[in-house]
């Protein structure tokens, strides 16, 4: 044979004299990697997300590995969930489990391919230098394996799919701060993490605190709030308690103080920095400006106002921020920050020019004022008394009352927050306009008593600060109206007396007529029916002088109610019928018509004409339910129950129960009276 070999041979040995046996081993088997990080301790909840990931084990695949992406903003627990799931299912991957951290883009996909190849026993000299060749080798070496590869902190999960092998028994799982819902392949399993519930945060904190640490439900909820209900910040809190022996009150102080909180969360804020660095300039600007939004969640039109951009452009920018997991989106298509991310965005906003911040907020408040004014006109009437609202022009963007009321409901918390912001800034006209427009329209339909009291008190204070007696009188009248609805006529009378004085001093007859009307309502609530009737008649005269037909008929309606209370059913019916006839001449206002008809039914009931009252009240209730105005149901329900009881007909108890539920939900003091009637029925 000499020193050469020309044939095929897997194992060739060149040697001199051989003494003894020769043993030639076959090829060494690939090692089985097991490089998963330790499973997170104290893992809580995430059962729905774990079940979604389990879909990677049950998918029908013939020629490709499973592919999953866990996305979410910094601190939501992406790595914890991925690692927990990987340990839970690792027995399904007998050829190994590999964990590679890409450090938010500091390492590339071909670096990851190199790490996995080394874990599989490929020597460095055998790993190609070119990225594509390296990834191709990885796919070749894993084609027949059942392997789990966990790529942590991947900047682009779509690109990571290049590492996906053809083995149906393998799974490639990525975590990323970029959302993959829209771009991932059809068979990708995608999970987007949000904050934990307060209950699960408290559960986690208790498991992570040193033994013997007392954690009350109240302190636990407070810690959860300051941790933003994020797993990463919870671990910081629990770790500091163990490391430094903090008490729970000390932990609360540390996480409440903004400067110290940022120091404790610096690692997580640094991760957000990396995500923001990947944004375009316009995306980064909106990211900062969005933190100025004072409400819980911002709609696209608010983002457009802040950025001084077209709404369609703002929607695209918000979609980019959502994809980057820097903002979350709720079921109303509104966008919000996690607490830690909000703090980071606020730091970016603080670096903006102060005038730029003020201009952005001015645009935001102006946009809410405009849309609120349109919604008010769609929900109430275009010609009702308004003293601080802007005169909107152009087509109303709301197609009708239902759509406008849905918008007011959806934006309620944002409207209240915008009004508080305007008050803090000293933008008095905006405070009054938001109260008198959008917030009054909402309260007029759906009774939010606490909100309304605060809104009109802010409005009255703003009008006083602006030395606008007319606006102050209007705000005090509306504040008094809410107090009347709450059964506090004495307090309401103080508001309305002051409103009358201001309106008389200003010489504004329209506001004076309104203030006298509200004073009459307060006096009626105190049982002073004769003087209340006198107020309604005086307001009636003023409205006749102003040629305000709607104002006239309102006073006839209110006078009719007062006459019912005074036992003058015949006179009441005359006044109420006149109001109904005037209403038919000027507009189609179902709500006001139904309120007049309810008072007419009360007059018939007083005259023991219960059959007529029952028929009328059934019609009223049908109309009110069709409008969806739950705040208008209680009175006709109670009156109907009274007449049914007088007629010994069934159904009274059911109507009283429904009325009681509505009154209790809104905190209406009439609930006590209805509760007593229900008890008397047995």
From TrEMBL:
<dbReference type="InterPro" id="IPR002182">
    <property type="entry name" value="NB-ARC"/>
</dbReference>
<dbReference type="Pfam" id="PF00931">
    <property type="entry name" value="NB-ARC"/>
</dbReference>
<dbReference type="InterPro" id="IPR027417">
    <property type="entry name" value="P-loop_NTPase"/>
</dbReference>
<dbReference type="InterPro" id="IPR011990">
    <property type="entry name" value="TPR-like_helical_dom_sf"/>
</dbReference>
<dbReference type="GO" id="GO:0043531">
    <property type="term" value="F:ADP binding"/>
</dbReference>
<feature type="domain" description="NB-ARC">
    <location>
        <begin position="63"/>
        <end position="206"/>
    </location>
</feature>
<protein>
    <submittedName>
        <fullName>Tetratricopeptide repeat protein</fullName>
    </submittedName>
</protein>
């Amino acid at each position: 044979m000499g020193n050469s070999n020309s044939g095929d041979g897997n194992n060739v040995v060149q040697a001199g004299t051989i003494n003894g046996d020769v043993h030639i081993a076959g090829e060494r088997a690939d090692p089985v990697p097991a490089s998963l990080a330790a499973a997170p301790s104290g893992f809580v909840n995430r059962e729905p997300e774990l079940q979604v990931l389990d879909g990677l084990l049950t998918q029908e695949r013939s020629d490709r590995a499973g592919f999953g992406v866990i996305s979410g903003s910094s601190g939501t627990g992406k790595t914890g969930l991925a690692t927990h799931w990987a340990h839970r299912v690792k027995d399904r991957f007998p050829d190994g489990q590999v964990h590679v951290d890409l450090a938010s883009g500091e390492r590339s996909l071909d670096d990851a391919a190199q790490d996995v190849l080394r874990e599989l026993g490929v020597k460095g000299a055998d790993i190609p230098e070119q990225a594509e060749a390296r990834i191709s080798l990885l796919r070749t070496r894993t084609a027949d394996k059942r392997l789990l590869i966990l790529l942590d902190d991947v900047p682009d999960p779509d690109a990571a799919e290049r590492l996906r092998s053809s083995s149906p028994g393998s799974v490639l799982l990525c975590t990323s701060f970029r959302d993959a819902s829209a771009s991932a392949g059809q068979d990708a399993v995608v999970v987007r993490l949000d904050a934990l519930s307060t209950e699960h945060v408290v559960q986690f904190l208790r498991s992570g605190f040193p033994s013997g640490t007392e954690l009350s439900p109240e302190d636990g909820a407070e810690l959860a709030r300051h941790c933003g209900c994020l797993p990463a910040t919870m671990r910081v809190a629990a770790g500091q308690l163990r490391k430094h022996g903090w008490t729970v009150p000390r932990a609360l102080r540390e996480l409440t103080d903004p400067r110290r909180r940022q120091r404790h969360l610096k690692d997580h804020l640094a991760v957000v920095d990396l995500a923001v660095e990947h944004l375009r300039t316009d995306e980064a600007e909106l990211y900062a400006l969005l933190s100025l939004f004072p409400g819980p969640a911002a709609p696209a039109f608010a983002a457009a106002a802040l950025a001084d951009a077209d709404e369609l452009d703002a929607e695209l920018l918000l979609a980019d921020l959502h994809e980057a997991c820097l903002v979350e989106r709720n079921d109303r298509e509104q966008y919000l920050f996690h607490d830690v991310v909000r703090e980071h965005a606020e730091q970016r906003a603080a670096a903006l020019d102060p005038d730029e911040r003020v201009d952005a907020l001015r645009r935001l408040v102006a946009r809410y004022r405009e849309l609120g004014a349109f919604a008010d006109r769609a929900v109430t009437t275009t010609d009702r008394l308004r003293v601080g609202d802007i005169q909107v022009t152009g087509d109303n963007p709301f197609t009708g009352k239902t759509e406008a009321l849905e918008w007011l409901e959806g934006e309620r918390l944002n409207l209240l927050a915008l009004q508080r912001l305007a008050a803090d800034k000293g933008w008095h006209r905006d405070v009054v306009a938001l109260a008198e427009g959008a917030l009054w329209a909402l309260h007029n339909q759906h009774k939010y008593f606490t909100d309304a009291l605060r809104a009109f008190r802010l409005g009255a204070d703003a009008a006083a600060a602006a030395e606008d007696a007319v606006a102050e009188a209007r705000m005090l009248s509306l504040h008094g109206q809410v107090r009347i609805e709450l059964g506090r006529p004495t307090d309401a009378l103080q508001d309305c007396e002051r409103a009358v004085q201001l309106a008389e001093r200003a010489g504004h007859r329209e506001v004076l007529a309104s203030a006298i009307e509200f004073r009459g309502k307060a006096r009626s609530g105190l049982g002073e029916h004769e003087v209340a009737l006198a107020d309604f008649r005086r307001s009636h005269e003023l409205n006749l002088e102003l040629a305000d037909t709607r104002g006239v008929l309102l006073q006839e309606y209110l006078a009719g109610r007062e006459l019912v209370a005074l036992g003058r059913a015949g006179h009441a019916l005359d006044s109420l019928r006149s109001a109904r006839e005037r209403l038919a001449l000027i507009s189609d206002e179902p709500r006001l018509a139904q309120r007049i008809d309810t008072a007419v039914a009360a007059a018939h009931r007083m005259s023991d004409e219960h059959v007529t009252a029952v028929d009328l009240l059934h019609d009223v209730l049908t109309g009110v339910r069709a409008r969806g105005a739950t705040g208008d149901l209680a009175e006709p329900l109670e009156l109907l129950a009274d007449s049914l009881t007088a007629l010994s007909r069934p159904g009274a108890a059911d109507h009283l129960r429904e009325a009681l539920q509505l009154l209790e939900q809104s905190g209406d003091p009439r609930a006590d009276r209805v509760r007593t009637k229900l008890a008397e029925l047995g």
